[in-house]
From TrEMBL:
<protein>
    <recommendedName>
        <fullName>Cupin type-2 domain-containing protein</fullName>
    </recommendedName>
</protein>
<dbReference type="InterPro" id="IPR013096">
    <property type="entry name" value="Cupin_2"/>
</dbReference>
<dbReference type="InterPro" id="IPR011051">
    <property type="entry name" value="RmlC_Cupin_sf"/>
</dbReference>
<feature type="domain" description="Cupin type-2">
    <location>
        <begin position="54"/>
        <end position="103"/>
    </location>
</feature>
<dbReference type="InterPro" id="IPR014710">
    <property type="entry name" value="RmlC-like_jellyroll"/>
</dbReference>
<dbReference type="Pfam" id="PF07883">
    <property type="entry name" value="Cupin_2"/>
</dbReference>
Length: 140
């Protein structure tokens, strides 16, 4: 039988939570969607938007997470996944396998994506560079 005590119902409207600048990256803004609280920390879901033009990107890193997807809602972002340059555009969904080394190095001013990660308190670990990174394009 389904255990209904492990999680609780959640309904978060756009006015219930606001974009905040105290997330993982200072050049993005993050809006919590209430899923971490509803799942007792099993999963986090958050909207992420561009806040500042890309300068240095995220740096090479990996996440200690069992599950991680990014669904691009608007705009685009360029990632290096290991040594593969990947353009993620509006409508695309990326599953980042556990431990994949990656670097987000460029994005559009209107970039917005939904990020779903388990567990909610996943860790980000800096790693040695895998390869050279293309320079981001300037916003006009």
């Amino acid at each position: 039988m389904l255990d209904r005590t492990a999680t609780k119902f959640s309904h978060v409207k756009p006015t219930d939570t606001h974009f905040r600048s105290d997330g993982l990256r200072d050049f993005f803004l993050y809006r919590d969607l209430g899923i971490a609280e509803a799942t007792n920390g099993k999963v986090i879901a958050q909207l992420v938007i561009a806040n500042n033009a890309p300068e240095k990107g995220t740096g090479w890193h990996r996440h200690e997470a069992e599950f991680h997807i990014v669904i691009m809602l608007r705009g685009w972002a360029k990632f290096m996944y290991e040594d593969q340059e990947t353009l993620v555009s509006a409508g695309d969904c990326v599953h980042q396998r556990p431990g994949v080394r990656h670097f987000l190095f460029d994005y559009s001013p209107d970039m917005e994506y939904l990020e779903v990660v388990g567990p909610a308190d996943f860790k980000t670990i800096d790693v040695d560079p895998v390869c050279d990174i293309p320079a981001p394009k300037a916003w006009f």
